[in-house]
């Protein structure tokens, strides 16, 4: 008995040590916030328009030509290619960061949700936010021939009903004063979907929602969970000219909370420009460009332990039949930029052609996030400087930002910071 008791005692000691090591390992994984690597796809500013709302007539062509380069002519094809690519690549989650529709048309919302159901049917959860175009938009319209007809939009309650299966219905917490919610993606990882597009306070983070955000961050910290935040408007200024109307009103206390609780990063859109910025304390914000603006890209964010890697991928890259659409979107953005420069210059200026071409090259590269690939023409830039127009100030802001690649980014994070 004494020998058996000794053997049992030794075995029990070994078992306790094994359990201790196992629990310590489990705790360390939990403390890092991530139980396993996670891959997120994020797309912004789909501006989807139901095919039933346009005949691609002359008015629609003129309207889109006067925009910022969204290839609305192939909206359906680009969106469909993106959906198919998401399904084939099978990320852990798809995040849509607002401006889901062209101008908030009810038919567009309804048609888009049918596409999202196909993604969820493939086992991929979808999380959505409204943008400033999506709710109670007075510009919701259909386009026929030489004119347009106003159509029905949706309000917050209808948005909640339509998109219930895409984040809101599975939320672990909801903000009673907005469409903000928190989703638990996996053990140790939460996605904070922040809505600042309420009808009563568009573009503004209200005090009520700020208090709700703080409570969610406290809850995540108590549960040792990492947090990725998402908004439509930007948390940080990405350009000296892109502040009012782009950055969230009352963003300062929000940024302070994100930094205090070690939020991994903020994902946004709204500008239609692919760009990455950091706060003074090192919090990254990744603004993914519009899916409809060349190169029609979305973001891929991968988290593993305490390291993160982001890169963009082209929605039209996987199918050879999409090459024509891709080239159209590229030319459309360049042509739109060229016309904008021509409108500002007005004609009769020495070196005008060089200036217009230079602006179109730079603007196309800037929207795509590849300023490192542009050939900077200082002579043309000096010509713009002599004109002293808004587009000169815009070019200067791009130059001040640095000729960088904003389509790739690697960083580390520590949720306990």
Characteristic terms for this protein:
417 residues, Purple Acid Phosphatase, chain A, domain 2, seven-stranded mixed beta sheet, six-stranded mixed beta sheet, 15 strands, 41% helix, globular
Notes on the protein architecture:
By secondary structure, this protein is an alpha/beta fold. It has 2 domains: about 40-320 and about 405-410, Metallo-dependent phosphatases (Purple Acid Phosphatase, chain A, domain 2, 4-Layer Sandwich); about 320-400. About 40% of the residues lie in helices and about 20% in strands. The chain contains 12 helices and 15 strands. The strands form 3 sheets. Strands 6-7-8-9-10-12-11 form a 7-stranded mixed sheet, covered by helices on one side. The chain has a 6-stranded mixed sheet with strand order 3-2-1-13-14-15. Helix 4 links the parallel strand 2 and strand 3 (about 125-130). Helix 3 (about 75-90) runs parallel beside helix 4, helix 7 packs parallel to helix 8 and helix 10 (about 350-370) packs across helix 11. The protein is globular. It starts with a helix and ends in a 5-residue tail after the last strand. About 45% of the residues are buried.
Q: Would you report the number of β strands?
A: 15
Strand fraction band?
Answer: 15-25%
Cα gyration radius (Å): 24 Å
Shape: globular
Q: Catalogue the unreliable spans.
A: 1-32
Q: How many helices?
A: 12
Q: What is the residue-mean pLDDT, rounded to a whole number? A: 91
**Would you tell me the structural class of the helices and strands?**
alpha/beta
Q: How far apart are the first and last residues' alpha carbons, in Å?
A: 54 Å
Count structural domains: 2
Q: Do you know the CATH topology of the largest domain?
A: Purple Acid Phosphatase, chain A, domain 2
Task: Name the helicity range.
Answer: 40-55%
**H/E order of the elements?**
HEHHEHEEEHHEEEHEHEEEEEHHHHE
- Level-2 CATH architecture of the largest domain: 4-Layer Sandwich
User: What's the main sheet like?
Assistant: 7 strands, mixed
CATH superfamily name of the largest domain?
Answer: Metallo-dependent phosphatases
| Strand line-up in the sheet with most strands | 6-7-8-9-10-12-11
Q: Regarding CATH, which class of the largest domain?
A: Alpha Beta
